[in-house]
Design goal:
Shape: elongated
Radius of gyration: 31 Å
Order of helices and strands: HHHEEEHHHHHHHH
Helix content: 55-70%
Oligomer: single chain
Strand content: 5-15%
Number of strands: 3
Largest sheet: 3 strands, antiparallel
Number of domains: 3
């Protein structure tokens, strides 16, 4: 008699095969936007013949339902009357974090099928492709209200271009096409300027939340490290040195966060430039590293002071935790300052050779140094 455990791998394999088959069927039944546009065009021709609720209507409704199920409801669209071409915006609800927490922001996407109507008007086709490219950048970087504004703006420009060609039945004059392209190009410059401003602000916000993730990670790391150390060493939270260590650990992270926020709030964000087009995940990851760097610098500076590798002239004969907390905050706040201090400690441990010091001083004496 076989045990239930013997059937578990086979059962899991059957479930995996079933899910794979369902995914393949869903991909096969998916409706591309050009297919939907063609079905809409055939339905319009049927309506022009005053055939209501004909077979083309049913086919279009079926494809529209499958398209909406996959891409989300259609927010706005422009459909050409004389040719099978269109542009549309869809909004798909975001998934919940971990399946049950808060819902992510919806994803707005621009769909375009315009090559049919612009085949004889390449100048309009180029501008429509520019709209598609800009829409991809906006959907990948922006979110929320700024994304909705920019995407609706792009759709209006694309709809205007299609309307110029559609009203001329696919053959506008060269002057009309050039004027429409120039006007669309000017409008897209305004959209891109808005995208740049909103993208910079969105990038800073994502970077900030990345720092918050870094702070939480540092807290978890401190708890786990303390638990492991308590199993193998003499660890007491009431010990003065232990308390000072964790104070420096926390103040270094706080100093790093305050430094970034101070530069963010300066005039036009001077001294804080980020590439918001690298993606949300990359920005969040880089932001999470910033508190960790501040905490590491603060802890290393604390060890250097306690190990007498750095000598600071102060009036106090004995340094308290307030002294170390202040230095730890400064270490996280200014990396350049702590590098200067640690450079002095490095010279104490390993003094530079005379030849090396000569090589480093000669260019400065000759006026060839770098600022």
């Amino acid at each position: 008699m076989s045990s239930p455990a013997a059937h578990a791998p086979a059962f899991s394999l059957r479930r995996l095969r079933q899910r794979t088959r369902e995914a393949d069927l869903a991909a096969a039944e998916a409706v591309a936007f050009p297919e939907l546009v063609w079905a809409h065009y055939l339905r319009q021709k049927e309506l022009y013949k005053e055939e209501m609720h004909g077979p083309r209507e049913a086919e279009y409704r079926e494809q529209l339902g499958r398209f909406v199920q996959e891409q989300g409801p259609v927010l706005n669209a422009y459909w050409c009357r004389n040719e099978a071409s269109a542009v549309a915006l869809t909004e798909k609800k975001g998934n919940r974090v971990l399946g049950f927490l808060w819902r992510r922001l919806p994803n707005i996407r621009l769909h375009a099928a315009t090559d049919w109507v612009t085949s004889d008007v390449p100048v309009i086709g180029r501008e429509l492709h520019t709209c598609e490219t800009l829409a991809i950048r906006v959907s990948e970087v922006l979110a929320g209200t700024s994304e909705r504004i920019a995407m609706q703006w792009i759709l209006s420009v694309a709809g205007y271009l299609l309307a110029v060609v559609d009203e001329a039945k696919g053959k506008p004059t060269e002057k009309d096409a050039a004027d429409a392209a120039a006007r669309a190009r000017t409008e897209l410059m305004h959209v891109e300027a808005y995208y740049a401003r909103a993208g910079d602000k969105t990038g800073r916000l994502i970077y900030f939340w990345g720092m918050m993730i870094g702070v939480v990670s540092l807290g978890v790391l401190a708890v786990v490290g303390s638990a492991i150390y308590s199993l193998f060493g003499n660890f007491h939270l009431r010990d003065g040195d232990t308390q000072t260590f964790f104070i420096c650990y926390a103040m270094g992270a706080v100093g790093a966060i305050v430094s970034v926020m101070a530069r963010m709030s300066s005039v036009r964000g001077a001294g804080f430039d980020i590439d918001y087009e690298v993606g949300r995940r990359s920005l969040r990851r880089v932001g999470s590293f910033r508190p960790a760097i501040g905490a590491i610098f603060a802890v290393v500076l604390y060890f250097a002071l306690r190990g007498d590798l750095i000598q600071l002239q102060t009036s106090a004969t004995e340094h308290t935790s307030f002294f170390y907390a202040t230095l730890a905050f400064l270490a996280g706040f200014s990396e350049r300052w702590v590098k200067i201090l640690l450079g002095g400690a490095q010279r104490v441990i390993a003094p530079p050779d005379k030849d090396e010091s000569k090589e480093t001083t000669e260019p400065a004496a000759q006026g060839g140094g770098v600022d």
